[in-house]
Amino acid sequence: MIMARASHRLVTAFICGLCLMPHRTKAVTDIHTKDDIYERIVTLLGQDAKQITFFVKLPPGARTGADLKGVFAFCTWEADPEHIREVMLDKGPAGVTGRIAKFAFAHQMALVSWTTFAGKKAYDKTQNFDDMSAQEAARTDATFDKIAMTWRRGIDGLIKDYQLPQDGWFLYGMSRGGQWAHRIALREPELFSAIHIHINSSYDKPVPEAAKMLWLVTTGELEAGYPFSKRFYAAARALNYPIIYNAEAKLGHADSPATDRLSEAFFTYAWDKKTPEASAFDRYVGNYLTHEFVVAPEMARIPAEVRVYLPNRSVADAWGVLADPVTP
Predict the structure, then answer these.
(1) Neighbour order of strands in the sheet with 51-57
(2) Pairing verdict, β 169-174 and 70-75
(3) What are the structural domains, with CATH classification, of the chain?
(4) Which residues of 53-74 are buried (b: 16+ CB within 10 A; e: fewer)?
């Protein structure tokens, strides 16, 4: 990777001028829809003129970035901008959309999204990072690096023109959105404070710099990438990532109410964690094979290689079930 692995951060402004509209700030080249969605297109250089369309929707009552308390970024699996518009308005078929928008606006966060595409040679959903040769990994990284740099160029423009916070973003991605989301987060760790990725199918190599953010990795035991997810989790733990992992029984390449509940608890914890008055919490430890958890002093009951560290009871209850007490 060019950025995080080489400790190099691309800082490029996409739009230089500002146009002050009544009550709200809008960049001169952006589209402002009747539904208060701001849209912008960025073209990838040397990628067959592929484009990323970015979307920004401010929470009710917010006029500028000064009114915001954060940003929730939703990396979707959609390539069609019209589908993203439906996502932003919660008109699409995926229930996850409403959950994210509701959380964002309840916490005075801007909602940011963008189109994605299956980048040729940018990743292989049938191969994990540890399945590739050094040469294959280098070629794959170089391809996605170009996508990530264009993405960062667009995001820097949004930060500048809409006065968005420069760090502390939340990030969610599912399916292809999870592929993009975690690869972006590994390259731009300073931008995010918490990330949830779901049913990625395959995973990039964890980097030490990304241990500064909270991670939630979820999948299904019937999902093709389930074995890959366990290896990503083990590699991330080896780098001391604050990471929660859960593979839902009988779940394939799909979302589920249980995953949604865990995601909600995770992001609530991430939000409270950065609030000075947040109370202290107990620690719990789960077994990702049995989906049972115990209080931390009893963690010896769980084999080290399948332990999942859970930060509080709310997250633990959403993650699994409390194990039966040990019989004397």
Answers:
(1) 31-32, 37-43, 51-57, 109-114, 70-75, 169-174, 192-198, 214-220, 243-248
(2) parallel
(3) 19-278 (3.40.50.1820), 282-328 (no CATH)
(4) bbbbbbbeebeebeebebbbbb
Pairing of strands 37-43, 31-32: antiparallel
- What are the C-alpha distances in Å from 311 to residues 265, 290, 298? 10, 19, 15
Contact in structure between 192 and 49 (CB atoms under 8 Å):
no
* Strand-by-strand arrangement of the 284-287 sheet: 307-310, 284-287, 292-295, 321-322
Please state, in angstroms and rounded to a whole number, the distance separating the CA atoms of residues 144 and 121.
Answer: 8
Question: Which of 28, 84, 82 is CA-nearest to residue 56?
Answer: 84
Query: pTM (2 decimals)?
Result: 0.89
Rounded CA separation 48/19 (Å)? 31
3-state secondary structure of 95: coil
174, β-bridge pairs = 198
The string of pLDDT tens digits covering residues 107-118 is: 999 999 999 998
Query: pLDDT tens across 159-171, in order?
Result: 999 999 999 999 9
Three-state SS at 129: helix
